[in-house]
Amino acid sequence: MLVLNFRIIVFGIAFLVSCNTPVQNDKNYYDNLAKGTENNLTENESGIINAIIEYRVNGRSDEIAIIADSTKYYGFDTSRMASKDTFPDTLVNMLRVINDRIYYIANNKLNISFDYRYADQTYLNEMGNTNGGMNYWNEFYKRFPESHMGILSFSKAAINADSTKALAFVMFGYGNMGMDGGAMSFRKENGKWKTIAYIIMMVS
Prior knowledge:
Layout: E1 5-8, H1 43-57, E2 64-68, E3 70-74, H2 89-98, E4 103-104, E5 115-119, H3 121-128, H4 136-143, E6 151-154, E7 158-159, E8 165-175, E9 178-189, E10 192-203
Parallel strand pairs: 2-5, 2-6
Antiparallel strand pairs: 1-3, 3-4, 6-8, 7-8, 8-9, 9-10
């Protein structure tokens, strides 16, 4: 039985509530979202985030990633992580320990090959109160047409001692009752992080 249960701070809304505020079609809503200014992440951490996005966009280079500003998860079922090479016990245990509290990412500048923005709960709540009850995800994609994968959330990555393998939890929200999430495994090859496995543990 699946135990994985993300508590995604930014995924609080699935449906839109009504309001009569019209959407300005000519406005660049990406300008409303922050990119982060602090250089707190290591090169490996940025490389893993890049690998997550690269895996999901499937060759699209024009994706503007919308990233949840923070995440929190409670427990997970490791029974599907059968491969000890892909999901080493040491990294699985490390992943559990380092993600025992809310992980805030939005203050960090990302050194990745994709454009990106951070979205917080307040902004998404406000977005949900627009255009007279228009479908939430229709509104999202109307505002952010270059963000095809929807809203991305991820945990802090667990990285092994020689920085060749890593694990992280990820979640993608992309439509009404449309989301999937689980564990991703990464390997560093020729200086670049790549996703080598994605075990889906939650889907709706």
